[in-house]
Amino acid sequence: MSRPILKSAADIAKARIAGGLAADVLRMIAEHVKPGVSTEELDRLCHDHIVNVQKVIPANVGYHGFPKTVCVSVNHVVCHGIPSPQKILKKGDIINIDVAVIADGWFGDTSRMYFVGEPSPLARRLVETTYEAMRAGILQVRPGATLGDVGHAIQTVAHRENFSVVREYCGHGIGQIYHEDLQVLHYGNRGEGLRLEPGMVFTIEPMLNAGKRETKELADGWTVVTRDHSLSAQWEHMVAVTADGFEVLTAWPDGTGSYAAIA
To answer: What cellular component GO annotations does this protein have (predicted)?
Structure first.
């Protein structure tokens, strides 16, 4: 693996702007996530906000042929769900919306979970545990720590609740390139892997399944589902390694609400 691209303070300032815009899309769409709405409509609203309000570029459109602005992954869809007019949200669904924008040549990339009405107790526990796992991973980030520390913290939280960690997909370096070489696994051993340095910027985006960890990709070449049809959840933040810890570059503009702050 090539050496990760270290960012200057000026670079991180640009990444922070892009990350903030991506987070703002997730704030905007929250009130529209309700029963009877199609995932296509959610995609249209996100596209219009990015292009017409923020006046930046939706990074996913056309990326390796992806046809839409956001990934919308419902229930047993692990990631990369393609918005569709046929997919209508119903009470009890859990969904992940994953958005990426390009602002002044810099990428912002983040995702979060939403409840459609009241979820089942299992669904709520899965979503809340996945957030806790992401938060635990982020809290490991500091100069001198390793990516193994991050992965170990995530899997420890997941396994405590008897959830499984998806292994086929991972976090990644990000900056002026959407997916830089650096890979952030969501499992691992303390002290192993790349040692973190100030200026590294990457995503931490664990996917946890209520059942087994195995996944499969559907015939559309994008949508990934759990093999056992169990529920799956994911959260994603962009993180910069600072001189003495970390900074979340995709912090929610309206705060974390009922979820624990990441600090």
So the answer is: cytosol
